[in-house]
Write a structure and sequence with these properties.
Rossmann fold, 2 domains, 229 residues, Ribulose 1,5 Bisphosphate Carboxylase/Oxygenase, 31% helix, 9 strands
């Protein structure tokens, strides 16, 4: 049963034509009628002409306007790099002892960064970290010797972009409380990243069939990307 709040939201919004991000944001924010600071979320569908099973997009984008949420970052590294990780703002830092804690189920973090040397040991925990999406990945910049940069990027506002088996991509561009300018800059950063991924994957034709925007507890609207991706 729908709540009174939800019943007050606009109906049949997907019957409307696609609108630009600049035009649709005021409407999205107006629909944020909950007491918490709702996220503004994007959803993309991969073109049906593409073989979804052959498209594997997984990358990260540094959002210029940030994400609006604090991320608990953990680092597995050699003892010599411990200070570098802590100075960069890592919440948890360790080496062999920390790997053992992870093995025993202690995973009170949202992002895990690892040096290449320690990754050899950490890779044995794939069955533990993999299902939770916590396994470090060189492609995502989370397996690196530049611990300082990786931690700062993760803390300052980083979003992961990946498609699921059905060809859907979901990502947040920030919070309702963000200025329109911040949200638009984050949106543009994501579009640029998708464009690069399309080129890197040598995809023929358009990658994105359709795109939508909504808030956490709001309704969805068709979104105009503004360029062919």
């Amino acid at each position: 049963m729908s709540s009174k709040r939800y019943k007050k939201l606009p109906e049949k919004t997907l019957e409307n034509g696609p609108e630009s991000i600049e035009k649709i944001l005021p409407t999205i924010k107006k629909n944020c009628t909950t007491k918490f600071d709702e996220s503004v979320d994007l959803s993309f569908q991969i073109n049906n002409k593409q073989k979804k099973s052959e498209i594997n997009i997984r990358t990260v984008v540094n959002l210029p306007g940030g994400t609006g949420r604090k991320v608990k970052v953990a680092v597995v590294c050699e003892d010599a790099k411990t200070s570098e990780a802590k100075d960069a703002g890592a919440d948890i830092v360790g080496s062999d002892d920390f790997i053992e804690k992870i093995k025993n189920g202690e995973m009170n973090f949202e992002k895990l960064i690892c040096t290449p040397a320690m990754m050899i040991k950490l890779s044995k925990l794939g069955k533990v970290l993999g299902p939770k999406g916590l396994m470090p990945n060189p492609k995502l910049g989370s397996v690196t010797n530049d611990i300082k940069k990786a931690v700062i990027d993760a803390k300052s506002g980083q979003a992961e972009i990946r498609n699921d088996k059905d060809g859907n991509i979901g990502v947040s561009i920030g919070k309702k409380s963000f200025s329109d300018e911040k949200l638009i800059k984050n949106f543009e950063a994501i579009i640029e990243t998708l464009e690069k991924e399309k080129n890197n994957n040598t995809i023929k034709g358009d990658l994105i069939k359709s795109s939508f925007i909504s808030s956490t507890m709001g309704v969805s609207y068709k979104l105009k990307i503004g360029k062919n991706i």
